[in-house]
Amino acid sequence: MVDPLFEESQRVSSVVVLVMIAILAVVSALLLWKFGSRGRIWISLGAATVFVGVLLAFMHMRTTVTQDGVTISLFHVFSTSIPADTIAATEAIEYNPLGDFGGWGLRFGPQGRAYSIRGDEGVQLTLNDGRKILIGSQRPDALHRAIQATRAADRVR
Known about the structure:
The protein has 4 helices and 9 strands; from the N terminus they run βααββββαββββα.
């Protein structure tokens, strides 16, 4: 196995988890008020609230940079590897997750594809074919340096 130049694991903010659970609780209360206390509704809404809370609590994004390139795993479901020789340029940036991509997660927008789970900083990759990929990071400068190092090492090989 190749030693990583950079590794980062990010989780959804606990504040986001609590806000989502609170929203579900309010929606549940409104539905209960509107339709009465039917047992099935309570069970369904309770199960949905617990499911969303657990799902959000365990969601995470892992970014790894090795000499071979960058690997991003999002929510244990989406994973992609970007070979070092396909990266034309990198830039550490601040971005607006809601405005630029419509939120967090795996997103597509006019600026390209984004892998983002938390915060508003990351590294913008421009690939050789012109496509752009944004990788959200809590340590964008370290991620940027690691990708630059892997690109430099690839040019030497």
